[in-house]
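In this supplementary section we document a worked example of the pipeline. Step one takes a protein sequence of length 587 as its only input; no multiple sequence alignment statistics are reported here. Step two produces a three-dimensional model, which step three serialises into structure tokens for compact storage. The input and output of this example are shown verbatim.
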Amino acid sequence: MSLQQSIQPGICAQTASLQALLNTFLREIVPDSFSLTSGGTAVEIPLSHLPARLRVKIEYFSQAGPHHFGAAQIRFASSSAWQAASPVQVITLIAQECFSRLNARDPGKLPEFLRGVFNSNAEIEKILRRVGDTPDPDSFLAAEQALSYGHWLHPTPKSRDGLTDWQQAAYAPEYGGWFQLTFFAADKSIVSQGAAQGSAADMAGQIPGAAGAFRLNPGEILIPAHPLQAQALRLDPAVQALLASGRLRDLGAAGCEFSATSSVRTLFSPDCPWMLKFSIPVRLTNSLRVTLRNELDVGVSMARLLDKLEFGKNNLRFQIIGDPAYLTLDMPDRSESGFEVIFRQNPFTIRQGKGIYNLAALTADPLPGRSALLTSIIKRLAASHGKTPAATARLWFEAYLDCMLDPVLELYDRHGIALEVHQQNSLLDLSTGLPSRGYYRDNQGYFITDASFPRLSALEPSLAGQPALVYPRAHINERLAYYLVVNQLFAVIRRLGCDGLVEEPALLLQLRRRLSAAASRFTGAAAGFAEYLLTAPALAAKANLLTRVHNVDELETAAQEGLFLQVKNPIAAAQPQPAPELADVPA
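The serialised model returned by step three reads:
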């Protein structure tokens, strides 16, 4: 039987959709209203919108991350017998229960929410139908395109509003398509650009095959666009007016081919020195994926600042992949024209990212019949070195903390800069087996403490125009705790625990020891942050279910960061076991 046959895409997709929805429901809607059966083998949920109870088997209970569920049953008040419930039935009941408990009275929101859930489910099924017997990813782009299930704690992880089936097949990362960019030529009088060094217009000319494909008129600048972006722009009356005036010319497709990374709108080519991040008219999970004007300038300012701080030169185990340039058009009465394109450094051109993985791909639940990517890597590493998988996993985790925890804490401690290092934004170099370097990407994800901002803005004056980057340390501690710990570190701990490599309590203690050392070693913001992680009874977590139920676009919230809630902190609860008495030690 082939892997394609063993997967059963429809059943697998429904199971994955239920896992995501049920985990977010237990965390965000009923954290205190469900119960565990005797022995903790199942979770029981009393339903408020009809006289019944749900019972779902727990295959794996996680202290740090999402649980893994098995078969579901329902029992109505009029019956003493439990009846089997299908994933689709449970998904629908949980969705109804969300709105019942939240007293959401808008009659249109429940169907809209269910549409998002089943839109995501249908996309997962399509992805699984094309997976076939593809091997595990072993490089940057392959890992970017291997996220079959999407976000581990999101009720609609693969919902994509605004894409037709043929557009998904052409441009979504899971389909592995390659395509050329569309180019426009714009009169420089309507072009806005910025660059930490050099010229963004020159960078556009560095896209292989683009510069020689067109003859630009004097005073024109080449503007690359994602094909989806270009299709939408051509329908914009303001753009049509510019085209009619001759100040903008539609040049069509040219240059080398690109393929989508996990963010969908950021494109990669092994031959181009830049990855390109575009605005596209698509809502992915919670947000319409448009680039706001202030993000363009933030990328340039932060690239200049980090270059002056020489953080990358002083820390060889961690690299920030900068977004040092942008191009867009200025259009009357608009903050954003739709032409926004960000130039992101591409450090993976020479080796094409061999052995580079994002954390989301490493920690994702595996397809049926396979092992999780991280587990497979650790087991191969153990076999090659003649060690047990458990010992190798502990060693791997320690090296991972060297690359991802310590450098992030050091940046925060020395400069008051925190990073939005969630799973998808964080990469590891595993080309030698053990983590040797961490990477961070995304100019949307910087926080600067209000105490550090005067010094940093004096060093890089353009920061003075970016007050949205500045927060009190207490707020940053909460957000960094979510992105670095709850989202990323806990995903690794849960993965290793779920796959039986190392039990979660042992890894939480290993993390606790590292944080205790950090609290003693650092003297600035990171010291207080480490102490916060060690002692806070609860940590902030993103409320993806509530965000989606209320149909909130994260970019339209006050701080452009969505909704948050508090969840139990397993680090504070992790305590070393007392040493056994001598009489209890086996001879």
